[in-house]
Design brief:
The protein has helices at about 1-15, 25-35, 40-45, 50-65, 70-85. It is mostly helical. Helix 2 (about 25-35) packs across helix 5 and helix 4 (about 50-65) crosses helix 5 (about 70-85). The structure holds heme C (HEC). Heme C binds next to helix 3, helix 4 and helix 5.
Length: about 90
């Protein structure tokens, strides 16, 4: 019985995330590429940035720190970070 309740709670929370990027390729790109050198805290505790700001961070990770991230994944990452840790221009 308890299991059934937990399962439906889980389903409800998934329902609410239809409009988010959780569990999408964008999120997977962040989780897969950005946590190779440091923890997620680096992203979480960074001040909110504009899209250009996040683009700058991702380019810095790639160009300065040599993060091996393909172009299309970089775009997905920037989109994700702008959505969750972004601020208006
Ligand atoms: C190749 C290793 C590497 C990868 C992969 C990497 N980073 Fe970093 N990141 C670093 C280093 C090194 C620093 C600087 C650490 C320090 O200053 O103590 C850093 C620092 C940061 C910071 C702190 C602010 C700043 O600009 O220094 C943020 C935010 C950040 N990374 C985000 C990301 C994101 C987003 C990704 C995925 C696109 C990513 N990192 C992938 C190496 C990496």
């Amino acid at each position: 019985m308890r299991k059934v309740v937990m399962l439906s709670a889980l389903l409800v929370s998934f329902g609410f995330s239809a409009e988010t990027l959780k569990g999408t390729p964008e999120e997977k790109a962040v989780m897969g590429y950005c946590l190779q050198c440091h923890s997620y805290d680096y992203i979480k505790t960074n001040a909110p940035l504009t899209q250009k700001g996040w683009e700058g961070v991702v380019k810095k990770m790639v160009n300065v720190f040599k993060a091996p991230i393909p172009e299309d994944a970089q775009k997905q990452i920037i989109e994700y970070l702008t959505k969750y840790y972004g601020k208006k221009e």
